[in-house]
Amino acid sequence: MVQEMVDLGFKRMELSHGIRISLVPGILKAVEENLIEVSSVHNFCPLPNVTQSAAPNLFQPSARDQREIDLWKRYTEQTLDFAVQVGAANVVMHSGSTWYFFEGPEVKLEKWLDDSELKACDFRGNKDFEKRRDRAMQRIRKASRDAMKRINRSYAYILPFAKERGLTLCLENREGLEEMPIDKEYSEFLKALPEPEHVGYWHDTGHAEIKHQFGLIDHREHLESMADRLVGFHLHDVSEVGRDHQVPGSGVIDFKMISEFVRPEHTLVLELSPRLTVDEVKASRDYIGKLLG
């Protein structure tokens, strides 16, 4: 796996939340032999032993069940230790979601979208969509109050572990409406967390663009509000119909705008669909290298 990335011209990589424990010896060997450097690790990595597929939300810091919170703590600590082993400075984190006893508002909205046959590029300005979106967000905001209390407690617990290991927890913006924190509240959320030198913001271009298509944020304004806490980026494009993890430059994202916020100290990670061809991966690398490198 590592050799394939090296052969494609990459010298650094992020270890994702899909890394099985069986891959760890080979990864450690590649790092020890200086075949590649690891820029970041995505929680949970390696995978918890109860699953064999990518599952970053398997256990959530927002959970109502303390047993799940304890598992989130356990496997997050394991990720932090692994980050130290591979020499990564950054750990990318998902921050949980709201909870509903019955069907959540996002599912309802998605069902309506499926029936409406609207494309993502048509969402803004569509009164029917905006009415249903706002109704969904009203329920989400209400549920977020309790969820955010649990999330804050979870991070308050884990941040000292990151500090002890000299790591930065990088809280990623998410594409799901029910995933926390709500984007417009992100800056205040980060300000309220302890250990500010060890917690920052990780910007996923595709997720932000999806929220932009939904009319929930302005992509540029969101980046401006988070610029002082930016640590790194997941870079991928979004098609007009809202499909992400596409070749940068092939979709609707304004990467020239993105480039205005990139600093030399930031970590840039291509996060592409596994369905892309080798040539498309190379095209993505060359496009980002020319524009942002």
Overall description:
- The chain is α/β, with parallel strands linked by helices.
- The chain is built from ten helices and seven strands.
- Strands 1-2-3-4-5-6-7 form a seven-stranded parallel sheet.
- Helix 3 packs across helix 5 (127-164).
- It is globular and about 55 Å long.
Set out the fold topology.
Layout: H1 2-7, E1 12-15, H2 24-32, E2 37-42, H3 66-86, E3 90-93, H4 105-116, H5 127-164, E4 168-172, H6 186-192, E5 199-204, H7 205-213, H8 219-226, E6 230-235, H9 255-259, E7 267-270, H10 278-291
Parallel strand pairs: 1-2, 2-3, 3-4, 4-5, 5-6, 6-7
Strand content: 5-15%
CATH superfamily placement: Divalent-metal-dependent TIM barrel enzymes
- CATH topology: the name is TIM Barrel
Strand sequence of the main sheet, in spatial order? 1-2-3-4-5-6-7
Total of helices: 10
Q: How many β-strand runs?
A: 7
Q: Total domains, how many?
A: 1
Estimated radius of gyration = 19 Å
Residue share in helices? 40-55%
Q: Between the first and last Cα atoms, what is the distance in angstroms?
A: 24 Å
What is the N-to-C order of secondary-structure elements (H for helix, E for strand)? HEHEHEHHEHEHHEHEH
Instruction: Characterize the biggest β-sheet.
Output: 7 strands, parallel
